[in-house]
Amino acid sequence: xxxxxxxxxxxxxxxNTQQITRAMKFVAAAKLRRAQDRVLAARPFARRMQVVLxxxxxRAQTRHAGKILHPLLAQRAMERICLILITGDKGLCxxxxxxxxxxxxxxLLEHSERGLSLILVGKKGWDALRKSHYRIRGDYVNRLAKxxxxxxxxxxxxxxxxxxxxxxxAVYVIYNECKSVLQQRRQTELLLPIRQxxxxxxxxxxxxxxxxYEQTPERILADLLPKYVETQILRALLESAAAFYAASMTxxxxxxxxxADMISSLTLTMNKIRQASITKEIIEIVxxxxxxxxxxx
Amino acid sequence: xxxxxxxxEIVTPSQLLYSGNVxxxxxxxxxxxxxxxxxxxxLISELTIGEIxxxxxxxxxxxHMFCAWGFCEVLPEQVSVLAQIAERAEDxxxxxxxxxxxxxxxxxxxxxPDTDFKxxxxxxxRALHRIQLAKKSNR
Lengths: 297, 139
Description:
The structure holds 2 protein chains of 2 kinds. Chain A is an alpha/beta fold. Chain A folds into 2 domains: 54 residues, ATP synthase, gamma subunit, helix hairpin domain (Helix Hairpins); 221 residues, ATP synthase, F1 complex, gamma subunit (Pyruvate Kinase, Chain: A, domain 1), CATH 3.40.1380. Chain A contains 5 helices and 6 strands. Chain A has a 5-stranded mixed β-sheet with strand order 3-2-1-4-5, sandwiched between helices. In chain A, helix 1 runs antiparallel to helix 5 and helix 4 packs across helix 5. The longest helix of chain A has 80 residues. The two termini of chain A are 35 Å apart. Chain B is α+β, with helices and mostly antiparallel strands. Chain B is 28% helix and 44% strand. Chain B has 2 helices and 7 strands. Chain B has a 5-stranded mixed β-barrel with strand order 1-2-5-6-7. Classes of the chains: A alpha/beta, B alpha+beta. The interface between A and B is medium-sized, with 29 and 24 residues.
């Protein structure tokens, strides 16, 4: 019966899809592990940097009360905001990109009375927002998979320049943090102005250590602050990459399971139809035979 | 009495390169090489292109590393080196450094007004230090 043929074809096609999603799941899992290693490897640097920066900034501050030591430490009223959105470059990863874009849109609406500009990292965010009326300062498409310090520098350069010149008063980053394989958390972080954690210094804090400075604090800060911004962007990029693979792995796992469910329900229906047609044939034969018997008498 | 060791940590943005107890270390400060012994006064310095070397406490072996820009924070019992680029001497890709050197020299000799002179000079300095260090460690 043609109907059964159709079901067979359908099952075969679902099986093929299942094989593909399963393969994609394994690929994502392998990439996830590598991405997670990179996140872990980048952490000590970022942490040490934060410690040194805090102590530097606090010391420098006490020496030059009221004077701004570096343009990146300037605090202004947040009139013009630049938003860095980090999405994935590919789809097939559940609500990963959709959530980010939705969060970005609501962020933009919330701050609609201020001057807004965007930097888009990742193809999906670019697709969603390139036609919006906001000013786009830069886009970095298909770069996330090979996120490196160089990429972070490339993104940070224009941001630092714009902030130093006073073109923007605040820079936010929206990205997904890889909390665990099953859970990605959306983060909206203030990148610039640099928050000063100096108000809450405990007496035991390294801030109070009387350092010898080989160079003047101003000189060191001038080199250190841009590196700090780059490191923060790098961290966001690496987190996003790991979160993307985690989301992609989860989505592909779900797809593989769904395909399995679909195959079993299709097989059941197909068997029922086959059974029905066999039963029907038997009834026909039996009734035919009975009719013959009846006419022979 | 002075302590006989201190904890050294060398980190780059991509990895934790070294962490362990050492008895002495030398780092390329902006104003020249600095030797650090246990019990050093707290100090912060920028680092320039050069060689980081230190003597591991356990093995008494001397380690060499290449470093390009970073800074270090010295505390009496702990020294942290944050380097933007750092490599173990034995990991240096000699052929890559040689070709980088040739490229930089060629660019300097071409006298093209568009060349970013400072950048080329830095690239040349990096290549030269890498080559020097790689040859030293191979001996």
